[in-house]
Write a structure and sequence with these properties.
Helices cover 25% and strands 36% of the residues. It contains one helix and five strands. A five-stranded antiparallel β-sheet has the order 3-2-1-4-5. The longest helix is centred in the C-terminal third of the chain and has 18 residues.
């Protein structure tokens, strides 16, 4: 069973990522999939590889945009 984490920020040579339990993980930037940026959702496969989950990233961005829009109504 795979796990999902979100890139919260970059600090030096590390990406600081957060899981759904709000636990933080430092992952070396060199280990990230190409093109990974803050806010991107990563899937950790059973073998430990990291894969960018673009569908989940897009869903989270849409949800956040809606929340922001609703705040300004």
């Amino acid at each position: 069973m795979s796990k999902r984490i979100v890139i919260d920020r970059f600090e030096g040579t590390f990406a600081i990522c957060e899981d759904k339990e709000q636990k933080l993980f430092a992952i070396e930037i060199a280990e990230l999939p190409q093109g990974a940026k803050e806010g991107h959702v990563l899937e950790i496969k059973d073998d430990g590889t990291l894969v960018l989950d673009q569908t989940e990233t897009d869903l989270r961005r849409a949800k956040n945009a809606k929340l922001q829009k609703d705040l300004w109504k």
